Amino acid sequence: MKYRRLGKAGIKVSEIGLGSWLTYGGSVENSNAEAIVDRAYELGINFFDTANAYYNGAAEEVVGKALSKYPRHSYVLATKVFFPMGEGPNDNGLSRKHIMEQCDASLKRLGVDYIDMYQCHRYDPETPLEETLRALDDLVSQGKILYAGVSEWSAVQLNDAVRLSQKYNLDQIASNQPLYNMFHRDIEKEIIPLSEQEGIGQVVFSPLAQGALTGKYKPGAPLPEGSRATDPKSNMWMEYVLREEQLQKVEKLKVIAERNEISVAQLALAWILRLDNISSCIVGASRPDQVNENVKASGVELSVEDLQEIEDILA
Predict the structure, then answer these.
(1) Nearest-angstrom CA–CA distance, 52 and 37
(2) Catalytic residue among 24, 41, 54, 118
(3) Is 54 a catalytic residue?
(4) The domain 3-208+275-299 is classified under which CATH number: 3.40.640.10, 3.20.20.100, 2.60.120.230, 3.40.30.10?
(5) pLDDT tens profile 69-97
(6) Phi, psi dihedral angles at 19 (to 5 degrees)
(7) For residue 20, how far is the Cα from the chain centroid?
(8) Contact partners, residue 90, CB within 8 Å, separation at least 6
(9) pTM (global) more than 0.85
(10) Apex CA 122: angle with CA 287 and CA 180, to 5°?
């Protein structure tokens, strides 16, 4: 496993991270989830990502329990805040009240004294940005979080956060967690250039397009039994990536993967890691053997010719 700095911050995260969206605390049994975390740790993954909103806190409890057997300094633990955690008017968003209360709740569920990366799960237009940034800065000062990050913020929102942090001498946003894969490339236009300029590292989610870039789904063929696409608990938002035109592209990508003696999934991850601004690819897993395969993408370097051929296929 290779490791990269989180933007300009000193902390280093594994090129492949393990996430818990749509899996732990829900569609994956707790015992199996723990086995997956164990396998990831054994293979050198040190970056584990979750969120308070994943199954209403259950994912945090599963991840925290699975990691509790390991020395706290040996892994980087990330969680998030924004989405509703109750029915009250202050049970969502990025107000100081919600951030402070949910940080304490996440610490309790995770069973740790501090969170390495605390991320704003979305932008909150109803809360002044300065209020949000000051709350995060206070959490850093209190030692409850080490770094603050965001997820799915626009370039304008990120830039505003950077400027406000500089103006008021607040702890700067260290990371951004966007959707990024071969089928979703929006961040290349504005987010990455800005992040490179300001030292913000990307920890991308859904790098395999919810499994579409593994090659398991075939054009014109029935969905594999037991796959995520057949599970109503976790197949939301898969319609686009399972379109016939997308699956045809995956078939063409297989040729490049075979030429490099790697899987399509490893090719897709290595392609993302071609960019220096990417700190980590957050993969999901429902079985330990999936982690075995994904970590092999770390360190794979694709040739200029391979990258151009991929561009031609994705165009």
Answers:
(1) 18
(2) 54
(3) yes
(4) 3.20.20.100
(5) 999 999 999 999 999 999 999 999 999 99
(6) -105, 175
(7) 9
(8) 97, 98
(9) yes
(10) 50
